[in-house]
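Researcher: Next sequence.
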Amino acid sequence: MAAEIKVMSAGAVKPMVLALGEEFARETGHKVEFAFGTVGAMRKRFESGEAADLVVLSVSAIEGMEKSGAFVPGSRIDLGRVVTGVVIREGAPVPDISTVEAFKQALLNARSVAYTDPNAGGSSGTFFVGLVERLGIAEAIGKKAVLRRGGHDVATAVANGEAEIGTTFISEILPVKGAKVAGLLPKEIANVNTYTAAISAKSASREAAAALIGKLTAAATRERWIAAGLEPAFGGK
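Model: Next structure:
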């Protein structure tokens, strides 16, 4: 019997969750509904009572929610790891971001800098705000900030010329036409985030949700995760 599955997911893994989820729906006949947004926004919606069968958020968010009994015990599984990168417009000069000092100077030299508004609950934006504070350039960057609600919007703003440079997860840069990954952050300040799936304890479609997790973590999908800018966090090759 066909089931209905609601997926609430962070935007950083949207390309793969959406693509594989839609394939799963075609293959099984199950109906899959998606809701994507920042980790903070999705967590708030879920904890406020919005129904979902499968939740895909950062590992820290899932761990925090798990303590309150939000998920089916044993259902949690890591999907993929994403790293923060720098985005520029296709065809623009590639800035030197090879060292922490070079990255800092690239931000200071840019006319405008796009990143996720931390008030929207975005993981990459929260990290970036803390980073520029540590680098001692928070005030300078704040004056030319182009804030967006999610990483995809950050990359789009750069591609459209609304910002000269931006920073977000590379998985959110790659799908945006006109945006280019200039490189990763220097290893000393690298930011890696793991995204995890778990089945809601209130789900009425647990079996179908578990099958969807199986689709997301199938060994045959590993190369597709990598191509989407995500390092698979599940086993198998």
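Model: Strands lie at 4-10, 31-37, 54-58, 77-89, 113-116, 145-148, 165-169, 179-184, 192-199, 231-232. The mean pLDDT is 95.
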